[in-house]
């Protein structure tokens, strides 16, 4: 690879990692005026690096987390830099994160490369701000959260967990992350469509895989490139979704309560519904938001449990007691989440340690004053979740995996694996539930061994254990 290609790849890699939230149009919400004349304010301390490239190369010549941590040490919790072609302000304090994501969210818009928007679909809710975002978000949230909506999914999610685990070849090395992706995809499809024919599900899976591949590549749309293949697959995805939407419109009177049916029924304040394209973009958006995040989290949990035999044994005991209470084969119930206290803490600690979404990205839509500093209009703003999660003032001995730290509720805005404010994750309850269900079946019926001696992290785009955690899985004998 020549230098330019490497640079382009790095830029893309970062954009991918940064890329969760997005926006298509400017917020029409009124904004707070500066209390001080802009000329009297300065951006926060920091270094802008070289002309044009800023500090992008420095960022990628080392572990990005080290880059951020060192800057924080040198300049404090709010500092400026210049990466990926943009002047940026990084925020590593709970107050600053809350300011941008919650209390003053109307002064910042999500921001995202056009090439990625084209693959997901420009109407996906996370690109938006204001009325449209609020309307669609309300539907998504009411369809995939709360016991009334998600507890009926428990037996169906259990079926998916069991068949995912049963499909693992006994004793052969597999990529854990890939298996988790299959699981998270199927649960995502279930929560979006309810029951779906296996033909449609497999068509979606095939096209989605290609879209995903292109998403992580350089956005050059020439025949033969991964991006071009992804754009074609995205068109096929739309076609499949149009067919499903058409069928659903006909059956809507007897519909189940899933996200697609809610999107089809949606009417805004003026009685307007969503177009088929808007529905398709949001379906793909939710699938995108749901799959790799949950699969990465699960992969880390499998690793952390593997690395701590005592902890694994304690989790096994907790889950086996629930299995025995259910007669050995009965379905889990919503209330049994309460009996999974240790497993829940393991999940929280894994989310803290791995900080899958290390930071998020916004752009100032006006000149903003924060704590006596100027955040100029057009600058990127990045709340650094990982820095908060790894700050010893909030989480003592932060590199130690210690689920018991969650016996005490973390201080406000210090623990935000699911974000915070107007774009906070509406799928967080579902994600935790599907992880609990998978772990219940994994630890009570299987044992596993991670293979290879290499330790490390790779980004795909979220951080995962190196090579997706190759491991062997065996069905445990009843007395094991
Ligand atoms: C462990 C798994 C997950 C993690 C760590 C996670 C994390 C996050 C974070 C940090 C955000 C906010 C990003 C920002 O503010 O820029 C977010 C947004 C979102 N997540 Fe999740 N997520 C997970 C699973 C899910 C699942 C299972 C679903 C759906 C079934 C989902 C749907 C969404 C959607 C639709 C948004 C955009 C919300 C908006 O813009 O209003 N996520 N997620």
UniProtKB/TrEMBL annotation:
It is found in: Membrane. Residues 1-19 form the signal peptide. Pathway: Plant hormone degradation; abscisic acid degradation. This is (+)-abscisic acid 8'-hydroxylase. Its cofactor is heme. One of its GO terms (cellular component) is membrane. It catalyses: 2-cis-(+)-abscisate + reduced [NADPH--hemoprotein reductase] + O2 = (+)-8'-hydroxyabscisate + oxidized [NADPH--hemoprotein reductase] + H2O + H(+). It is an enzyme of class 1 (oxidoreductase). Keywords: Heme, Iron, Membrane, Metal-binding, Monooxygenase, Oxidoreductase, Signal, Transmembrane, Transmembrane helix. One of its GO terms (molecular function) is (+)-abscisic acid 8'-hydroxylase activity. It is a single-pass membrane protein. SUPFAM superfamilies: Cytochrome P450 (SSF48264). Heme binds at residue 425. The keyword Heme applies. Pfam families: p450. The lineage of its organism: Eukaryota, Viridiplantae, Streptophyta, Embryophyta, Tracheophyta. Its main location: membrane. Its EC number is 1.14.14.137.
